[in-house]
Design goal:
mainly alpha, 103 residues, elongated
């Protein structure tokens, strides 16, 4: 089951990094950031939050603070993808460890 984690994470990250056909607005960024933050909080509650998620959220906020909403939106989407991948990993590892247990 954990073998499927990395392709899943790569798909999520590639979708998050895909360029959009429109200029991002502050509202677009705020919606994406809220979704990313919610996913990050869920991962943290599972005690499985990746440090890259936190730093990517910080990068999104920094870009938004400087008015670069295209970059902020992309970083927020990437942070959400990272958080969701960490949630997926937490769920898959919850049972996968049993296969490695010495019997």
């Amino acid at each position: 089951m954990t073998g499927n984690l990395f392709p899943f994470a790569l798909i999520l990250l590639s979708l998050a990094a895909a360029p959009s056909a429109f200029a991002a607005t502050e509202a677009d960024y705020k919606a994406a950031y809220a979704a990313a933050e919610a996913s990050a909080k869920e991962a943290a509650a599972l005690r499985h939050q990746w440090t890259t998620t936190v730093s990517t959220l910080a990068a999104a906020k920094k870009a938004a603070d400087s008015g670069d909403f295209d970059r902020a939106l992309a970083a927020a989407r990437e942070a959400e993808a990272l958080a969701k991948a960490s949630i997926y990993q937490a769920a898959s590892e919850k049972e996968a460890w049993k296969a490695m247990e010495i019997r």
